[in-house]
Amino acid sequence: MGFFRAIVTRFRRDTRGAALIEFGLAFPILLMLFVSGVELTRFLLINQQLDKAANQVADLVTQLNSVTTSDLNNILSAMPELVTGYSDARSAQVVSIVRKNGANPPRVQDQYVGGGAIGQGSKVGAIGGIASINNFTMQPGDEALTVEVYYQYEPLLLPIIEWLELDITQGQYLYKIAIFRPRLGALNSF
After folding, report:
1. What is the pLDDT at residue 27?
2. 69 CB contacts (<8 Å, ≥6 apart)?
3. Computed from CA positions of residues 119, 120, 121, 122, in that sequence, does the dihedral angle turn out positive or negative?
């Protein structure tokens, strides 16, 4: 019995491996916090850049007297310069002209879908349909240009998430909309 007590007492007084054990317990938590911080920062940055890009595209289009499909192709081709890590394979843009005639609800007059490959339709509406633009008041005769930007967000840690068989990346589309009034006259069509 005295032999066993001596071993336990010696083990309790020996602290040579305590720091290594504490580090081994704390490291996974610290690593998870660091990676989560990086991912959250990246998500917020892409979100902010998409908002900025939608506003810049709408601003450029509304400065033109008339807009052609070629103009829209040229403007939307600048998207990779506006958004870090932007890829046409994971994006879509929809530009719509909305007009309100008389007391009728605003309708989508024309629409351009381009600059991306994910095949998202417009949330504003289809050509000829009633426009769904919340929090934007239009008077009879008013016209508005909407730019919708879709982006399929992929976390940096996607291989680890797939390995853990977590299904959290399905349908992670970021969506931004910018609504501007034409500056130099009416936009008839593209």
Report:
1. 93
2. 112, 190
3. negative
Summarize pLDDT for 35-69 with one digit per residue, the tens. Answer: 888 888 888 888 898 899 899 989 988 888 888 88
Tell me, yes or no, whether 188 lies in a domain. Answer: no
The DSSP secondary structure of the chain, one letter per residue, reads -HHHHHHHHHHHH--TTHHHHHHHHHHHHHHHHHHHHHHHHHHHHHHHHHHHHHHHHHHHHHTSSS--HHHHHHHHTTHHHHSTT--GGGEEEEEEEEE--TTSPPEEEEEEEES-SS-PPPSS--TTSBP--TT----TT-EEEEEEEEEE---TTHHHHHHTT----TT-EEEEEEEE--SSS-----
* 75 Cβ neighbours under 8 A, 6+ residues apart: 57, 60, 61
- Say if 98 falls within a structural domain: yes
| Domain hosting residue 46, numbered range | 2-180
Assigned domain for 122 exists: yes
Sequence-ordered list of residues with C-beta below 8 angstroms from that of 16, at least 6 positions apart, any chain: none
pTM: 0.77
Closest CA to 57 of 45, 71, 70, 43: 71
- Which residues in 131-163 are b (16+ Cβ under 10 Å) and which e? bebeeeebeeeebbbbbbbbbbeeeebeeeeee
Structural domain contains residue 164: yes
